[in-house]
Amino acid sequence: MPNNLMQQPLAAASAAAPNWLAAAHAEARERWQAASLPTRKTEQWKYTDVSAIDREFVPGRAVSVDAAALDARVPDCGGARLVFVNGHYDPALSSSDPAAGLHVARFADADESQATLIQAHLGSVVGMDRHLFATLNSAALSDGVFLQVDAGATVHAPVQVIWLTTAQTEAFAVNQRLLVLAGDNSAASVVETFVSFEGEAASFTNGVSEFVLQRGATLNHYRLQLETGSALHIGGVHAHLDRDATFNSFHLGMGSDLKRIDIVIEHAGEGAHAEVNGLYLPRGREHIDYHTCMEHAVPRCTSSETFRGVIADAASAVFNGRIHIHPQAQKTSAILHNRNLLTSAEAQINTKPELEIYADDVQCAHGATVAQLDELSVHYLRSRGISRDEAQVLLSFGFVNELVNAVRSEALREFLRHLLAARFSRDGAALTQEADA
Amino acid sequence: MLVIENLHARIGDEDILKGLSLTVKPGEVHAIMGPNGSGKSTLGHVLSGRPGYEVTAGTITYNGEDVLALETEERARQGIFLAFQYPVEIPGVSNMEFLKASVDILREHRGEEALDAVTFMKRAREACTLANLDHSFLKRGVNEGFSGGEKKRNELLQMMLLEPSLAILDETDSGLDIDALQVVAEGVNNMRNDTRSFVLVTHYQRLLNFIKPDYVHVLADGRIVRSGDASLALHLEEHGYAWLDDEVA
Ligand SMILES: Nc1ncnc2c1ncn2[C@@H]1O[C@H](COP(=O)(O)OP(=O)(O)OP(=O)(O)O)[C@@H](O)[C@H]1O
Ligand SMILES: [Mg+2]
Asked: E strands of A27-144, at which residues?
């Protein structure tokens, strides 16, 4: 066992979990006992120090939260909303939306047929052997969200799942789990938002989201990592794409001392397509690490991936983009772009494309760049009266704008514009709207 | 009033300006002509405080203030505007955002009320029309993918919105078609008044048919070697710069 860090949360989870999870628990615990925490010598963790979580955590406690304070921090997309506070489902903050073809259940109160479906798919997407923290997640599982979209159904309003962490006196752990089962030719959207209220004690959210996209399914997924301060997060997004399925996944990382997200997409049926875009914007002494992996296991699939980072102050970021094209995956098209803007001399980025291509008839384009602020651009802006600080803001905003504009959901686009305007401290959002008028 | 006295400036260890003096009074239009590489753009860069240019001697004052002691943005806030010979492309930052940020700060500095978004949009669209740029240019990235002529007209657009008291136009007429040249000339002429001054850097007498200058100067080898009225430009057009060499030497 890595250490005692999760003893109490694991015990609490055992007590709270539904019976049918017992088998999954036992297996995951066995693995976890045998594992050790990654160090800087572990290849996948070379640039991310996890010593901040090498401590004891207590389970998260349910506390009551002011709805308005939460609403001010999260997008409003209409549709069903599930809110968890310190890992506990909060019915008062949640709302349902009886959309045809959509079934939302929590593991804790799943009916028999749902429990059967969950058991059939849970853990089928994430490779436990390769993801230690997913193992921990399964070992500590007591509740989670199950979304099922019926075959052929189109659900317009995005389902929102919000995980809020808020003040507790001792450092606490939260176990987040999502399972999405998108039926044949269905279409739906899911927004995962992680947010924290400033507290003195550290929190550690360990998240796993699994997406099963059956034939021809389309799923738009958004994952916003907005936790601040000592709200730490290690999470994984794992998707399995069957024939002709499309997974569009947007990521935003900002705000806290440690964030590590693994995104693994498995193209398992011909004609599957994944588009993954992301922004990471650490500042101060924050650290954000995105590890992505496109597994192309069958022919004629496509993937397109663009990540951009603006790294300010003494912050650091890691981007590791792996593309794995198996020998039989002929006619694959895989594109990966990563661009980074360092706005201070102390800012750091480690970016690495990792290509493993074993098929010969494929198209694969990749590139990673790291740039400083362009002095001539800064001068041009200043020559129009704009201060150096404001110029930096404009140029940083400009750098990420393209990806924000590409976000499919209008409500989310607006939310992001305002969020980033505030992050870059200006009021550009209203203006862009005006220009569209 | 702009007063430049005995200005010496260098890039790296290359001396470019070598004792340039020039006085521009409120309401005046000065044209500066001169051979390639003589230092015309360098003068503009030094006035705007561009990094890499070192002033080794001389002074520049504007309305009595020591320009060289001011940051680039402070010079702009004092009313100095430079239309760049080579405007800079800034992808991702919309022209609109850029113009709004600039207009906001300049108005604030002049003690004027902030423009609400609607009023600003209206003015920006009007300026676009005057600069003969489609309104869609407001949404595009600053100069991003603009043609040479469109970049020049975008500089004109900025000048019209920012309303400087001193505008230096560095070859804003170069690379323009005949109609666009008229647009630039009209833009300048509409803005001319008793207090606003212009310095037009140009290679072509043609522009001066449309904008009648009060003075024409020849800048050669880092100095003003000749000054006169509009007729000097006609003389240059006919005889080139060679005849000046004999006189300077
Ligand atoms: N970075 C640099 N290092 C060295 N010399 C430079 C540098 N930048 C410009 N120069 C030189 O300074 C001189 C003056 O250039 P400037 O751009 O001011 O000329 P100009 O009069 O504007 O010419 P043009 O009519 O071609 O625009 C030129 O000889 C040019 O090569
Ligand atoms: Mg020049």
From this structure: 58-59, 81-85, 88-89, 102-106
Q: Which residues contact B204 (CB under 8 A, 6 or more apart)?
A: B173, B174
Architecture of domain B2-247: 3-Layer(aba) Sandwich (3.40)
Place of tokens 């923290």: A133
CB of B147 shorter than 6 A to ligand 1: no
Q: Give, for all 437 residues of chain A, the pLDDT tens digit.
A: 566 778 888 888 888 888 888 888 888 888 888 888 999 899 999 999 999 998 899 999 999 999 999 999 999 988 899 999 999 999 999 998 878 999 999 999 999 999 999 999 999 999 877 889 999 999 999 899 999 999 999 999 999 999 999 988 899 999 999 999 999 999 999 999 999 998 778 999 999 999 999 999 999 999 999 999 999 999 999 999 999 999 999 999 998 999 999 999 999 999 999 999 999 999 999 999 999 999 999 999 999 999 999 999 999 999 999 999 999 999 999 999 999 999 999 999 999 999 999 999 999 999 999 999 899 999 999 999 999 989 988 999 889 988 998 999 999 999 999 999 888 874 433 334 444 43
Within 10 Å of residue A167's Cβ, how many Cβ atoms? 14
8 Å CB contact between A274 and A242: no
- Its pTM stands at 0.84
> E strand or H helix at B141, and its extent?
strand B141-142
Cβ–Cβ below 8 Å for B76 and A383: yes
Q: Are A384 and A399 in contact (CB under 8 A)?
A: no
Alpha carbons A172 and A133: distance in angstroms, whole number: 16
Prediction ipTM score:
0.97
Binary contact (B82, A383; C-beta < 8 A): yes
Q: Say which DSSP state B70 is in.
A: S
Widest CA span in chain A: 68
Nearest CA in chain A to B71: A382
Query: Which parts of A130-248 fold into alpha helices (H)?
Result: 132-139
Cα of B187 vs centre of ligand 1, distance in Å, is 28
> Is A204:A171 a contact under the CB 8 Å cutoff?
yes
Q: B107 in contact with A at a CB cutoff of 8 Å?
A: no
Tokens of residue A19, six digits: 């019976």
Q: What angle do CA A305, B136, A371 make, to 5 degrees?
A: 40
Q: Which atom of ligand 1 is nearest to the CA of B45?
A: 18
Q: Do strands B65-66 and B53-62 pair parallel, antiparallel, or not at all (unpaired)?
A: antiparallel
List the 36-55 stretch of B: residues with Cβ below 8 A of A.
48-51
